[in-house]
């Protein structure tokens, strides 16, 4: 396959331009997060772990879950947790049955750091908020489809999304959630649902 980064290829091919554009947008997330992390003397992954813990249930805060979530090795996640514990942003709850295992909870100062750092995405949120509703729906449909295909290729390892959920079904191209007991329109599809349970 030709290189997307070769400008002759890129500028004569819409597919390549879209991929290059997605690359540019992913860089923006990294840059915004990095700027924020410098101001708080934290690394980007330390901030990401704090934000994840703030909004997910306690059983998703183990080293193995976090290493899958962030596609990082267990030692890297363990080091991240050790630093956050030293900074007193988290506390560990040791599993009584297996003292090598633990879950993590935010301390009050950890919660404060989340409040002060999670807004690093605001410039993008503002752009999306000002976009036409129909364009947003098309964009959302495309994003969910791309995520689903990346998961099928095993590039995105974890998904708490409707199509992988045991409560999800499709009938005549209508999506339905049996837990919420409602049809799911395009904008009801979730990519990170608290009630998600994997389809067996
Ligand atoms: S429980 Fe959540 S993830 Fe599962 S189908 Fe319903 S809305 Fe989607």
List keywords for this structure.
200 residues; mainly alpha; Arc Repressor Mutant, subunit A; 2 domains; two-stranded antiparallel sheet; 5 strands; 50% helix; globular; binds iron/sulfur cluster
Compile the SSE list and pairings:
Blueprint: H1 7-10, H2 14-39, H3 44-55, H4 63-69, H5 74-86, E1 90-94, E2 102-106, H6 108-117, H7 122-129, H8 133-152, E3 168-171, E4 174-177, E5 182-184
Antiparallel strand pairs: 1-2, 3-4, 4-5
Helix pairs in contact: 3-5, 3-6, 4-5
GO molecular function: DNA binding; DNA-binding transcription factor activity
Organism: Flavobacterium aquatile LMG 4008 = ATCC 11947
InterPro entries: HTH_MarR-typ, WH-like_DNA-bd_sf, WH_DNA-bd_sf
